[in-house]
């Protein structure tokens, strides 16, 4: 079945483990292991959410329109206004 290990051999090993550690200790180990797995999953989902937020923020930053100024055209316009004010 599993590489030459039968179900009876697995049951005997399980029985010996229960006799050595007791059911209460095994239950605590199982609870601790389950809590660790839950913690790992929640940490991974939080990391994914943070990554999505940072990606979304990066996309928003690129979508904002920027103002471009032509300095020479602005100076020329001011010079023309100044000439008109003189006359």
Cα end-to-end separation: 105 Å
Order of helices and strands: HHH
Record field, number of beta strands: 0
**Class by SSE composition:** mainly alpha
User: Count of DSSP helices?
Assistant: 3
Name the shape in a single word: rod-shaped
> Could you give a short account of the major beta sheet?
none
Query: Multimeric state of these chains?
Result: single chain
How confident overall, as mean pLDDT? 81
Radius of gyration: 36 Å
- Low-confidence segments, ≥5 residues, pLDDT <50? none
The percentage helix is: over 70%
- Determine the strand fraction and express it as a percent band: under 5%
Please tell me about this protein's structure.
This protein has 87 residues and is mostly helical. It is 83% helix and 0% strand. It has helices at 7-21, 23-63, 71-86. The termini are far apart.
Short overview:
The chain is an all-alpha fold. Helix content is 83%, strand content 0%. The chain has helices at residues 7-21, 23-63, 71-86.
Topology record:
Blueprint lengths: L6 H15 L1 H41 L7 H16 L1
Keywords, separated by commas or semicolons:
mainly alpha; about 0% strand
């Amino acid at each position: 079945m599993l590489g030459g290990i039968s179900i009876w051999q697995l049951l005997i090993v399980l029985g010996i483990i229960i006799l050595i550690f007791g059911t209460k200790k095994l239950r605590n180990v199982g609870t601790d292991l389950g809590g660790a797995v839950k913690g790992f999953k929640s940490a991974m989902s939080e990391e994914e959410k943070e990554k999505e937020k940072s990606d979304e923020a990066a996309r928003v930053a690129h979508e904002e329109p920027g103002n471009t100024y032509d300095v020479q055209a602005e100076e020329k316009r001011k010079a023309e206004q100044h000439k008109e004010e003189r006359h």
